[in-house]
Amino acid sequence: MKKLFLGMAILLATGMACNPKPQQTEDEGGNTIRINCLIKVNAENRDKVIELSKELVDSSLMDLGNIDYDVLASATDPSALMIYETWEDQSSLDAHSASSHFTRLVPQIQELAESMDIQQFTGKETEGVIRLNCPVEALEEDLDTVIVMAQELVEYSRQDEGNINYDLYLSLTHPKSMLFFETWQNQDALDKHSAADHFTRIVPQIQDLADMEVQQFLLKN
Q1: Partners of residue 134 on adjacent β-strands
Q2: CATH of the domain at 99
Q3: What are the helix (H) ranges across 98-175?
Q4: d(CA 12, CA 79)
Q5: CB 7 within 8 A of CB 97
Q6: Domain tally for the chain?
Q7: Main-chain dihedrals φ then ψ at residue 65, nearest 5 degrees
Q8: pLDDT tens profile 45-102
Q9: CA dihedral for 135, 139, 145, 147, sign (positive or negative)
Q10: Domain that holds residue 117
Q11: What's the pTM?
Q12: Spatial separation of the C-alpha atoms in residues 137 and 82, rounded to whole Å
C-alpha cells in the first residue's frame, strides 16, 4: 500500500500561508491531487536516496497529467527529504504509479529510507485539514537573505495554535527554488496564523525579494 501511495505521492504540499488569503489550487473543478511524500533518511544513505529521487523526478515530469514533480531537502532537518508532486486527476496518478520508472525506483528508495509518510490532498471543496505549499523563487543574490527570513518564519509559525507542521524545503534540482510546507487543523487556525505579527512582519519582506505562489489543498478522505 505504501508503494502505491508514494507514486501517488509526492503529493501535496503544505507550504506556508504566503498570502493572508491563499488561492485555490490550479484545478477549479477540484480534481487536482497533491502528494507530499516525506522521507526520513540517515546520513549514510542520503546521497543515494537523492540520486534515485532525482532520476524519478526526471522521468515523472514527462508523465501524462503531471503538473509538478520535485525532490526537496528540509532546511531545518538534514534527515528530512520530500518528494513533491501534483497531478491533474486520479487517472494520471494511477498511470504514473504503474509506470516502469515508478515501479523500479520507488522500491529502491523505500529500501534505503528509514521511513516514508505519504500524504494525499485534493482541491475539492470540503472542510478538513488544510495543506499549503508555497513555492518560492528568489534571485541568486537574494537567496541567502530569503532563507534566513524564511527560517525565522518557520520557527515562529510552529508555535501557532492549530499548526500541525511547518517547514522550509529547498529544491535539489532548482537551486533558486524553495517551498514553504505547512499543515493546519482547519481554516480558522490558518486565518489566525495569517493575521499573526510574525506573519504580517516577515512575509512582506520575503515577497519583496522573491516570487511566491500559494497552493491550498484539503486532506483527501
Answers
A1: 180
A2: 3.30.70.100
A3: 100-112, 143-157
A4: 19
A5: yes
A6: 1
A7: 90, 0
A8: 999 999 999 999 999 999 999 999 999 999 999 999 999 999 999 999 999 999 999 9
A9: positive
A10: 1-221
A11: 0.81
A12: 18
